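Hi support team,

I submitted a single chain yesterday and got back a structure, but I'm not sure I'm reading the token output correctly. Could someone confirm the output below corresponds to the sequence I sent? I've pasted both exactly as they appear in my results page.

Thanks,
R.
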Amino acid sequence: MSAALNSPFTRFAKRTSTLTGRPITFILAVGIILAWAVTGPLFHYSDTWQLVINTSTTIITFLMVFLIQNTQNRDTEALQIKLDELIRAQKEANNALLDLEEMDDKELDRIRDTYQVLARMEREGKA
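Hi R., thanks for writing in. Yes, this is the structure output for that exact sequence:
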């Protein structure tokens, strides 16, 4: 197991991602919003009452963006490695495609055009 998997932030991000993606977490969030709304008359819909929900949701959203990005980056990298291995393992595969994510847009467009021509030829029975 690599050191990155054992890092405290990675463990925290994975655990938080797992917990926040569950239905019970959504239900809890809805419950908090409902509790806040119900307390409106109690606090006379004051500025402080509004500030509590605005500040809370802003902070949570701000932090979740970083956790989601971390999780997505890790998942994307793992998927890319798996795809690279599948390409590498095929004798007929074009191994130049292994690092497409490192190429600039013009090179990607050129390669995409090549594959679109191949796909069109295959559909028309010319390949």
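A quick pointer for reading it: The chain is about 75% helix and 0% strand. Let us know if anything else looks off.

Best,
Support desk
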